[in-house]
């Protein structure tokens, strides 16, 4: 079903927004208590770049550390200067979202939370046509989250909602 067919059935038309105003590597407020850093890794899989979110001030949760690129890790360090990274949350294990996990974990010793080990998904391709893995099948979190959990830090709280 294309977007015009969807619109005819639902009474609204879906559109894909391609405009996005940002500077790579700069933390910007996107909601109260939430900052976003866009990694400079644009492409067909990442669109303009991978988003890393910082929740809270003082005690900070990092959601999806992003790619293991020096400039991106430096941007996270600069944005959290004088703060403590208290949690690292992983939404999914695509390489563009998780590869900075190991260096960030070694720098902060923050617990890593996710829905569980990745495992091999059935019927889903996990490598690129060139054979490079784009899903970390070996990932296991320090703590496993489940739908309905609440993750809290000083001055912030996140409700966990599983959207497979």
UniProtKB/TrEMBL annotation:
Record-linked InterPro entries: Metallo-B-lactamas, RibonucZ/Hydroxyglut_hydro, Sec-metab_biosynth-thioest
Domain Metallo-beta-lactamase: 47-163
Pfam families: Lactamase_B
Classification via CDD domains: metallo-hydrolase-like_MBL-fold
Bilayer-crossing regions: none
N-terminal signal peptide: none
UniProt name for this protein: Metallo-beta-lactamase domain-containing protein
Biological source species: marine sediment metagenome
